[in-house]
Structures are given as structure tokens and as C-alpha cells.
Design a protein that fits this description.
Elements (H helix, E strand, L loop, with lengths): L3 E8 L3 E4 H11 L5 H12 L5 E4 L3 H4 L5 H27 L8 E5 L9 H8 L7 E5 L6 H15 L4 E8 L12 H9 L3 E8 L8 E9 L7 E6 L2 E6 L3 H19 L9 E4 L4 H12 L6 H10 L6 H10 L8 E8 L3 E8 L1
Helix pairs in contact: 1-2, 2-7, 4-5, 8-9, 10-11
Length: 350
């Protein structure tokens, strides 16, 4: 029985600001730093390709000194709410009840929860007691696609079942007030908070694009490139400046062999559903595929409207495609990059 994507639903946090409104807060945070450095930081915010972002906290709270415990308590409280709302929206769109779900995957890397958020969801939505739960906590920006891959493999092995993947992230909860590194500053400039839920099915009656293939690609000796370092102040961003060029270097090894193994090629891929890691990565991907007549307009637009929400973001891009009138037989390629360093791909067919 084929595995199909039934629907996707997004859920935004209660607070939002345009980048233009955040820059004065960043300047106040940087008071006392070298003026040239401050101008450089403002330029990073201006050129990040992010017009607006959402947050589980007010921007003023983000720039206020709080302990790791206080920030993480906010993460637990607010992200649980976001996850529940996102999942309920998706269930309503699909016409499903929560107790129909057989497999529940939650992905997040921007806070620490034990029990994980899926335990709370199972209780709040009164799911079946036999539901299989899988929390994914350390896959970073790639985890939205990781969840789809894990759900697909479960559903392939279990025909007639239903799965949900919920991604919920708050990068603003990881902002480090006393860290003036480029990694912390670039993170503040490009990241935002959000949640999304995707429903998949191996039931004959359900419709939606079919998951044709999936794959993970590991970059050797690149653990240093992306992730978090756990410090006394919280999760400190690790983001190497060579990420865009490393992605560009590996792209042919990631995309073309994957498509060839599944009896297709980039010319036959109609839709690119890529994670918007940041302006430089978007530009890199655009340069690689623009010459082939492909575009990543939806990826760029999601970055502009919401920022990079880590694992959540690619699901916002996917939702835009699910809301379009796409022709039967069209193929779509999903792709995200995350810590490890790794690339994760999913091939869809409508």
C-alpha cells in the first residue's frame, strides 16, 4: 500500500515583529561594542532575507537576562501549546480523529523536555493507548524530513495505518545574551519560532502526494559545522561559515544519484520543496538549479515571511505546494540539511 501525505497545517506563536522593529533592540543589546561591529550586525539583519518572524516570547523578553531554566520552562509551556494546536488543525483539515493515529512522531531541538511533547499530546487529545511514539531531538533543521522518513517506513511496514509528524521549534529560546559571536548573531538574524503538523497514511481511501522514495546522506568529518553546545546559559548555537559552500560542493552527490536510483532525474522533477536555511543557502541552491529552469520561490518566500524555524520550515514550504492545483503525475523533491552534517531527501509524486 503506498504512503501518502494527507495534509499539513502550520501554527504560529502569539508574538511577531518585522526585522526593522528588531534592529533597535539588537542595537541596544550591542551598546558598548565597537561601532563598526554594530554596523556589521545591523547589515546582517538587513540582508538576512527575513522580513518578519514569530516568537513564543516578546522580543523584549528575548533580549532580557534569564536563566537556562527560565527560558526552557517557557519553551516547554509554549511549544506544547503550539504542537497541540498544529496537530488539531491538521486533524480537522483531514477529517480525522486523534484516536485514529497509530504512530506519533515529534521533532524539536531548541529545548529539553522529558517526557517529550508527544506524551503530552497523547494525553491531551486522548489518543489510543497503543500508539507508537517517537521523539526526535537532535536532527536540527533536517528533522522535519527525518520525521517524514520515519513515518513512511512505519507505514510501509504497516498498511492501513495513520501517522502524524509534529515539528515545533523556538530558536529564540536559545538566544545567548552574553554571546557576541557571529554564530549567535546570524542565528538571531535568520531564525524564528513556529510549529507544523503533517499527516501521512497507508490507508487505501486516503489521497495526497505519494512518498516515492526517501534517503539520508551523511557528510563525513563535518560534525563541527552545525548544532548546539550545552552551556550554563543554555543551548549555544554552532554554525560554521562554510555551510553554504559545503552544501554547494556536495549537491551533485546528493541530488542526482538519489534521483537516478529512483528511475528519474532533475529534469523530471517539477517542484523543489527545499528548507530555507538562510539567504546564502537559498542563493546557493538558486544558482545550482536556476540554470536548469527550476525555481525555489516558495522556499524564499517562507524565509521572508517567517524566518528559518529549524525543523518546521520545510513543512511550511510543503504546505504551500499542497494548497496549489498540481497536475497528476508531477514530481516534487523535498530537501533539508542538518547537524551531523547531513542532507535528507524525499521524492513525492502527485
Amino acid at each position: 500500500m503506498p504512503v501518502k501525505i494527507k495534509t499539513v497545517a502550520k501554527q504560529l506563536p502569539p508574538y511577531s515583529r518585522d526585522t526593522a522593529d528588531i534592529i533597535p533592540l539588537a542595537q541596544a543589546w550591542l551598546a558598548g561594542q565597537d561601532e563598526r561591529f554594530i554596523r556589521k550586525v545591523v547589515k546582517i539583519f538587513d540582508n538576512a532575507g527575513v522580513q518578519k518572524r514569530y516568537s513564543i516570547m516578546t522580543p523584549e523578553e528575548v533580549f532580557t537576562k534569564t536563566s537556562f531554566e527560565e527560558k526552557n520552562d517557557i519553551y516547554v509551556r509554549e511549544c506544547t501549546k503550539l504542537a497541540e494546536k498544529a496537530l488539531q488543525k491538521a486533524l480537522d483539515k483531514a477529517g480525522w480523529n486523534a484516536n485514529e493515529l497509530d504512530y506519533l512522531i515529534t521533532v524539536s531541538c531548541t529545548g529539553i523536555m522529558i517526557p517529550s511533547v508527544d506524551a503530552y499530546l497523547a494525553n491531551k487529545l486522548k489518543m489510543k493507548q497503543s500508539i507508537v511514539r517517537l521523539p526526535v531531538t537532535e536532527m536540527g533543521c533536517a528533522a522535519g524530513i527525518s520525521g517524514i522518513i520515519y513515518a513512511t517506513n512505519f507505514l510501509k511496514a504497516n498498511p492501513g495505518k495513520k501517522a502524524a509528524v509534529i515539528a515545533v521549534e523556538s530558536p529564540t529560546a536559545t538566544f545567548q545574551l552574553h554571546d557576541y559571536s557571529m554564530a549567535n548573531i546570524v542565528s538571531a538574524a535568520i531564525f524564528g519560532d513556529g510549529a507544523a503538523a503533517i499527516l501521512l497514511s497507508s490507508c487505501e481511501e486516503d489521497e495526497g502526494p505519494e512518498v516515492i522514495a526517501e534517503e539520508m546522506y551523511h557528510f563525513f568529518d563535518a560534525e563541527y559545522m552545525m548544532g548546539f553546545k550545552l552551556t550554563n546559559e543554555g543551548l549555544r548555537m554552532v554554525l560554521d561559515e562554510t555551510v553554504p559552500e559545503t552544501i554547494a560542493e556536495h549537491f551533485p552527490k546528493i541530488v542526482h544519484p538519489f534521483l537516478e536510483r529512483n528511475n528519474t532525474n532533475i529534469d523530471e522533477v517539477d517542484h523543489l520543496i527545499f528548507h530555507p536555511g538562510g539567504r546564502k543557502i537559498v542563493q546557493t541552491v538558486d544558482e545550482l538549479f536556476g540554470s536548469l529552469g527550476k525555481n525555489i520561490d516558495d522556499t524564499r518566500e517562507v524565509l521572508k515571511l517567517y524566518g528559518n524555524m529549524s525543523s518546521v520550515t520545510v513543512l511550511y514550504v510543503l504546505e504551500r505546494f499542497l494548497e496549489k492545483p498540481i497536475a497528476k503525475g508531477d514530481k516534487g523533491l523535498m530537501l533539508s540539511f542538518g547537524p551531523g552534517f547531513s542532507a535528507q531527501s524525499v521524492l513525492l509524486q502527485w
